[in-house]
Amino acid sequence: MISSCNNSSALGPDNLSWNYLKFILKHDECLINIIGIANIYINLGYWPNHFKKLTMVIIPKPNKLSYDLPKSFRPIVLLNTLGKLIKKVIGERIQLYIASNDFIYLSQLSRLKFKSTTDTGVILTHIIRSGWSKNLLTSTLAFDISQFFLSLNHCLLTKIIQKTGLNICVVDFFNNYLIDKKTNYL
């Protein structure tokens, strides 16, 4: 999980690098402590305020003829690296729970364990060939919704999470995670 994190990514407000965390987590005792911290946050239904403090840096995109337009710049949000690690641990646990209880639609493939672009290709090919066998024309529309999670209705998301049968502590954790985020601009 942590091995795929980029060692050269920008430091967050905690000034920890992935390289440093990878070194620390080679020791089983440290890994067990991080997992223990994640468990405590879930059991308390709480996401600490210092992980809710984000720093945004706006950098110019390279090779632009003019920097008079907002689209010539790229906003980058820097998060606490330790918070990102704990979110990864929590995300892994929740994803395994949801997948093992068949709460995910069969068509949901992106960013899931045990799913790949090969799975997507096989499903898409099946849909197209099924249409052809019925003499139907088949077309595909693909899109990427940037920052989709931030635009979700939080109340609706909470109700969906409750319907999955997750422990009330997990539901409380998500409620707390979604509120009171603060962004500083550099």
Would you mind describing this structure in some detail?
With 186 residues, the chain is mainly alpha-helical. The protein has one domain. The protein contains 7 helices and 3 strands. A 3-stranded mixed beta sheet has the order 2-1-3, with no helix packed on it. The protein is globular and about 60 Å long. The two termini are 30 Å apart. The mean pLDDT is 82.
Following the backbone from N to C, one meets helices and strands in this order, namely HHEEHHHHHE
Rounded radius of gyration (Å): 20 Å
Structural category:
mainly alpha
Major beta sheet, specifics?
A: 3 strands, mixed
* Unreliably modeled segments: none
Instruction: Please give the share of residues in helix.
Output: 40-55%
Broad shape: globular
Distance between the termini: 30 Å
Count of alpha/pi helices = 7
Q: What percent of residues are in strands? A: 5-15%
Q: What is the number of E strands?
A: 3
Give me the side-by-side strand order of the main sheet: 2-1-3
Domain unit count: 1
Write down the overall mean pLDDT. Answer: 82
Give me some keywords for this one:
186 residues, mainly alpha, 46% helix
Spell out the blueprint of helices and strands.
Blueprint: H1 18-24, H2 28-44, E1 53-60, E2 73-78, H3 81-100, H4 117-133, H5 148-151, H6 154-163, H7 168-177, E3 182-185
Parallel strand pairs: 1-3
Antiparallel strand pairs: 1-2
Brief rundown of the structure:
This protein is mainly alpha-helical and 186 residues long. It is 46% helix and 10% strand.
